[in-house]
Amino acid sequence: MFRKLEDRMDSMAYSTALSQAVSILLYIHAISEEPCANFLSTKIISEQLNIPAPTTAKVIRSLSNAKLTVTKEGAKGGITLSRPLTEMTLLDVFLAVEPGKPLFKLHTDVVLQGKDTEVAEIQQKISKRFEAAEQAMRQSLAEVSLIDLVE
């Protein structure tokens, strides 16, 4: 189930970290449903999802910083969800792994003699279109709770 989801999400390219974070959260959810479930180690998550250990640690750190997961150090430590998947959206995960990064970066280093005003107008139009597209993407991600991906 997780491999198919990750394969589908990888075909939509924005950030590999986004699909990895979603996979990690869904995996933790699935394992936590089992009796006697405890904190999961980063190593186990990395191995089971076939994500390099350093990448797994980095994504988990982002999820923890965003308060989507709780980590515990020590022999019985690891990671668990901070709240149910019904209370997490794809936008929450996106903001955790891509904090403060715009979807589009506008090339502004354009110098055309005598055309600066025209270039500025075009850049402004492009910028407005990109902002609208990013807002639509954020709205779409906010509408999907992680539990929707499991059910």
TrEMBL record:
GO cellular component: cytosol
Pfam family of the protein (one): Rrf2
PANTHER family recorded: HTH-TYPE TRANSCRIPTIONAL REGULATOR YWGB-RELATED, WINGED HELIX-TURN-HELIX TRANSCRIPTIONAL REGULATOR, RRF2 FAMILY
Record's protein name: Rrf2 family transcriptional regulator
Signal sequence annotation: none
Source organism superkingdom: Bacteria
GO molecular function: DNA-binding transcription factor activity
InterPro entries, A to Z: Tscrpt_reg_Rrf2, WH-like_DNA-bd_sf, WH_DNA-bd_sf
